[in-house]
Amino acid sequence: MASKKKWLSLLVSLSVVSALFVGCGDSKTADAPKDELKKEEPAKSEGDKKEEPAAGTPKDGGTLTFGSTSDIVSVNPIYVQDTASGDAEQFLFAKIFDIDRSGKVAVEPWSLAAEPMKISENGLEYTVKLKDNAKWSDGQPITADDAVFTIETVRNPKAGAPGITGFDKVSKVEKVDDHTFKVTLKEVYAPFQYVLAMEIIPKHVLKDVKPEEMQKYVYGTDPAKTVTSGPWKWTEWKQKEYLTFEANPDYWGPKPHIQKVVYKIYADQNTEVQALIKGDIDLANGVPVTQLEVLKSKDNLSVDPTPGPQYEYIGLNHKADNFKDKYVPWSSPKTRQAMAYALNRQGMIDNVLKGIGSVMDAPFLPGSWADPKEAATHYDYNPEKAKQLLAEDGWKPGKDGILEKDGHRFSFELQYNAGNSRREGVATVIQQNLADVGIEVKPKALDFSAWVDQNLNPGKFEAVLIGWSLNNPDPDQESIFGSKFTPPTGQNNVWYNNPELDKLWQQGTSTVDQAKRAEIYKEAAKILSTDLPYIFMYQYGAPTAMSKKIKFAEEDKPEATLAYGYFFHAINWWIDDAK
Amino acid sequence: MTEYLIRRLLQSILVLFLVSVAAFGLMHAAPGGPTQMMISPGLSPETAAIQKHNLGLDKPVPTQYVIWLKNMLKGDMGYTFKNNVPVGDVIWPAVKNTLVLMSFSWVLSLIIAIPWGIYNSTREYGLSDQTANFVTYIGFAMPTFWFGIILQEFFSLKMDWLPLSDMYSMDKQGNVGDLFMHLILPSTVLVLVNLAGYVKYSRSSMLEVLEQDYIRTARAKGVPERKVIFRHALRNALIPIITVLGMDLASLVAGATLTENVFNWPGMGRLFVDMARSREYSVLMAITMITAVAVVLGNLIADILYKLVDPRVQIGRKGGKA
């Protein structure tokens, strides 16, 4: 008896562990852009929006409760990379410059900057003057010292701050006077203005923390030690449950109307949606498109179906080593174009995305100042044309109906992350569409973390279905498509090499005039849409649903096309419980 | 008895050690790591290396294990990689929350299941027995998350009698009455699931005993049926039930992932999945070890209970009858 039981207990403990491992593989939550690789980059659109509840006079007080499917990591602005921490940051921290509805850098009453940045004639010096009345939540003034300290910390490789990439063109940062600082660049780099739409950290709190200790320091995880600059103060964090923010009574800018903000964490997206219907929460971002109809039918809710600042694509690997037979089936642009013609992208939007999305032909979000519009080559759904192009390119049907060329079968593996229902759905359509023209697709779902580690970062795959989140409204994308940026240096993990395009990216960032830049990106769009390093799919949505008791004036309504646009101008919103 | 306990303790330590080695190895063998989720893809390899070094992830896995073990023995469970929060701050609230939910529903299911099973064993294939069969099928067959959603739809969204999810209302943190209201729906789900097994176990284990010769003898002697059931049969029938309960004890700590997810209960099951996804090794190891300790303890408690229920059981002696 005794000896039998010993083994039993060992076996039971082990099976508990393995069952949980299996469990985590197939559980699902967010198919929102939270699992997107984040990248600082381009474009935004000014889509027409449907009417939002508005009118009435703002009143002070009330609580805004919003739902999230992830907990924060740290709200220390120099380490924020995930959407959850970023959401919290919107309430707690002021930015030097803000982004306006049209995606331009702007000075708002709640921006730390007092006036627009001054850029020197040669485009190398950026001078920023801060408001002289801005204060940290502990009462200390916000000065140029804080800004210089922040930028120096981010630039220090020992600090391991992800924002460092934005500063690699900076040669020096200096304080001009108490409220003015100057950044000097090594070369003209137009996207830098967007880098300055950043939050800063308090020097007086963090000056004694060594850069290599900064990430581990409690600033950003302990509400009591996290001195902030924004309209609300951080009052509580109950891990995996909720965070609370209270209006800062000593806030230096225009006072927010909403007294208290609760950030509630849900393990399951369906529960979050139920909570929204029930009224436990007032706002949820990234609601599953499958639930939209239900939400729209509720009188107390409004839903914004505008696609957000993100797009999806099929990343085609251009490096022969990544294929079993060392042969890249889509080495010729003609074949890639044929694949684009073969895909019914509008059909995917209508059926899988439930209409929340729009077809994209080049990686510049529709409606932004860099939108190439007709300059980009458009591919209709046209299987006949696809077949014709494939035949012209030398592909012939083999015995099993799958195309062959020079003894190679046109068959490839398409990877995406498990648990993302949108990508699961789209991958099936891709498989079907390409099978119709004689191309075999083997969809493969992978665990996100493992996928990033083994395939995406090192650029080892045949094809991937993934998206880019466009957090920075600048259209420069050299670090994605530039030939200098292949792994491990950059994000060109499809190993694309096009010298002509390389040159355009260079021109684009070294030209300050926006109209001229727009022309350059139009050229880039032409090349991208005909040469197709990726097959661009669609701009997609992470629809926001909110309770009608959240009120705002027309100019303060949420802006889906901006990063964190669901909280756009939240400082001016108010809560009216009487509906 | 003392000798037995010491031996069991040593065995348990060995078991826990093996579990920790296996779990640590498996975790590190799984592709991906905490840094993949933290480091922005555009970060230079040098900075990524600095990050790994700062976190101690550049050391060989056996070395990392030894470091982990040393700290664990000192009672230091470590810190999360992502934001350097002490693991205890993450785990203990989750343990507590899970214990509240699981023990509430566990005790409730026992209170219902054992008497019901006993009753059914005396009236085999009666109405009550058929009902239990039906409930058992439902309990085994029904996906828990689906049942949870149905309950939410009706009792919370439609009728508005009970809260939808969470452990407390936002403005009533720590209020016992509020906690009770929040317990009702998730416990209903868990009770139904547990009930299925426990009713079956107690019924069949009673039936087995009731066929024994000594029961027939007792009845023949003219012992009243009530006494036959409770004095003679039940005590013997309890032994297999205790074995099952002992093994289930660990789930009081491990939690119920699906139910916790649907009802947004901030417990261990939810935490484990969350942490597995972000490869928080130190939290995962802590959860594994806590669960393993619970399994070992559950077995030990079961053994001791045998003794209480059945004085003939000679704990720790070879050939002891159980």
TrEMBL record, chain A:
Residues 28-53 have a biased composition (Basic and acidic residues). Keywords: Signal, Transport. It comes from the Bacteria. Residues 26-68 are annotated as: Disordered. Residues 1-24 form the signal peptide. It is found in: Cell membrane. Belongs to the bacterial solute-binding protein 5 family. PANTHER family: OLIGOPEPTIDE-BINDING PROTEIN APPA (PTHR30290:SF9), PERIPLASMIC BINDING COMPONENT OF ABC TRANSPORTER (PTHR30290). This is Peptide-binding protein. It comes from Paenibacillus cookii.
TrEMBL record, chain B:
It comes from the Bacteria. The chain crosses the membrane at residues 99-119, 131-151, 179-199, 237-258, 281-302. It is a multi-pass membrane protein. The keyword Secreted does not apply. It holds the Pfam family BPD_transp_1_N. Keywords: Cell membrane, Membrane, Transmembrane, Transmembrane helix, Transport. The keyword Cell inner membrane does not apply. Residues 95-302 form the ABC transmembrane type-1 domain. SUPFAM superfamilies: MetI-like. It is found in: Cell membrane. PANTHER family: DIPEPTIDE TRANSPORT SYSTEM PERMEASE PROTEIN DPPB-RELATED. Belongs to the binding-protein-dependent transport system permease family. This is Oligopeptide transport system permease protein AppB. It comes from Paenibacillus cookii.
